[in-house]
């Protein structure tokens, strides 16, 4: 799945030692226990910083990796509520919506990136999606 590719960098950046180890093991092995440890670490950070859009993006990526798409979209949408200009949240929400077959909604997120984002990385990624 596309969101899993981008998840590691975002999640490792802020989970702390236990969460980072759990995430790495979960990413390699896909075991439920490691995933749960990573979730606990991220939930603790969200309790301390509920208005941190970046943490909501990371949670969305982690949930999407486990194919919990509805919860992933909720987390990514919360990130967008907190920081409407956050291209990474819109990009990953678009990928998740696309994974669910909700192509029209996904295209709205991708269109927003094309017209409003100044982030060259996400603009390029959206262009590559159109070609693929």
H/E element order: HHHHHHHH
The domain tally reads 1
CATH architecture classification: Alpha Horseshoe
Percent in helix: over 70%
User: What is the approximate shape?
Assistant: globular
Distance between the termini: 14 Å
Uncertain ranges: 1-10
Total count of strands: 0
Give the rounded overall mean pLDDT: 81
Q: Total number of helical segments? A: 8
Strand content: under 5%
Return the CATH class. Answer: Mainly Alpha
Structure description:
The protein is mainly alpha-helical and 132 residues long. The protein has a single domain (2-131), classed as Serine Threonine Protein Phosphatase 5, Tetratricopeptide repeat (Alpha Horseshoe), CATH 1.25.40. Helices cover 82% and strands 0% of the residues. It has eight helices and no strands. It has helices at residues 2-12, 16-29, 32-48, 53-65, 69-82, 87-99, 103-116, 120-131. Helix 4 (53-65) packs parallel to helix 6 (87-99). The longest helix is centred in the N-terminal third of the chain and has 17 residues, at 32-48. It starts with a helix and ends with a helix.
Explain the layout of strands and helices.
Elements: H1 2-12, H2 16-29, H3 32-48, H4 53-65, H5 69-82, H6 87-99, H7 103-116, H8 120-131
Output the keywords.
132 residues, globular, 8 helices, disordered N terminus, Serine Threonine Protein Phosphatase 5, Tetratricopeptide repeat, mainly alpha
